[in-house]
Amino acid sequence: MNPENLAASRWKPIRQAREHTAKAEAACAESSARLEQLRGQVGAAERRDRQTLGAALVDGKAAPASEAERLKGKLAQEERNREALTQAVGDAHGQTGRLVRDNREAWRGPDAARAGEG
Fold first, then answer.
1. Could you report the per-residue pLDDT of 67-107, keeping only the tens digit for each?
2. Which of 15, 40, 92, 113 could form a Cys-Cys staple with 24, CB 3.0–4.6 A?
3. How many CA atoms are closer than 13 Å to the CA of 38, on its beta-carbon side?
4. CA-CA distance, 116 to 118, in Å (whole number)?
């Protein structure tokens, strides 16, 4: 068993930090997938917008709402979300290291501390 897995099996805070990291990574991956999907939809929406606008102008009607602009707004929000999630992943990775550093002596126990005194 590698040391990280061993630590997670022994100490709940490490296990929780690893679970939090996995959750943050999954959310970031989902956001990236949504971004790619939205980016792929914008071009087609712009073409549909031009068609519907052209038809409305020919018929003397008001310009319809832009589907592409709505998608661009969603895209901008998703870009902000992914940026924040990327930061959350980095923070989560750092959390495990901080936990180990801050609790190393306590987790070693009194026997390990006495062995180091000799």
1. 999 999 999 999 999 999 999 999 999 998 888 888 888 77
2. 92
3. 19
4. 6
